[in-house]
Amino acid sequence: MSIQIDVSRDKRGLIRDFVYAALKKNIMELRLEPGQFISEKELVEMLQVSRTPIREALVKLTQEELIETTPQKGSIISLIDLQHAEESRFVRKTLESAVVREACGLLDKEQVLHLQHLVSLQELCQSEQNYGRLFELDEEFHKSIMIGCGRARTWGLIQQMATHDNRIRILRLASDSDWKIILAQHRGIVRAIKERDPDQAESMLRDHLDLVVIEKENLKQKHAKFFK
Fold it and tell me: Which CDD domains match (predicted)?
C-alpha cells in the first residue's frame, strides 16, 4: 500500500481531520485503488497517529461509500458503482443546467474573469500532465459558478452524492492525457456566460457533463477490476 501524504497538517487542526483528508485524497486520486484492502495497523504506521483517529476517519469514509467494512475482511476501498455514479450525474446535470442559466444573468465581470483564470490554470495542468491538480481546478470552476449564483448549499448537495462519479472522472483524466476537449468546453461555458447566452451555456454544460458517459464503457473495459 502506498499513500501520498501531501495534505497540510495544521497543528491547530484536529488529527482526525488530517487523517480523513489524507485518506480521502488518496482514495479519490486512486493511489488507494478500488478493491484494495487497508488495515488499521498499516495506516497507524504510515500516518504516525493513534488508532482512534484512523477509526473515526474510516467510519466517515464508510458513510461516504468510499470504504466498505466487514467483520471478516476488515476495510476495503469500495469498488466504483456505476449505478450510483449515474444517479449522481443525473442530479448534477439537472441542477447545474439550471444554475448555469442563472449565471448568465448574475455573474459580474470580475467573476467571469475568475472563471477565465481557472481555465488558464487548467491549461498549465495539461502541459504538465498533472491530472490531480486538473481535477481540483475543474471542481473549483464548477463550484465558482454555483457560489457566484448563491447556490452554495446546492453545490454541497451535489458533492454529497459525487464520490463514485468523481472517481470515474479522475480515472478518465489519468487514463487519457488528451484533455483538450475538456478545456474547450470550459472555455465555451465561460464565453456563453460572458455573452449572456443561457441556451448556449446550458448546451455546453450538458455536453461537458456527458463526456465521461461517452467514455464510461471504455474505462470499464480498461479497468474492469475497479468496478462493481
Answer: WHTH_GntR (cd07377)
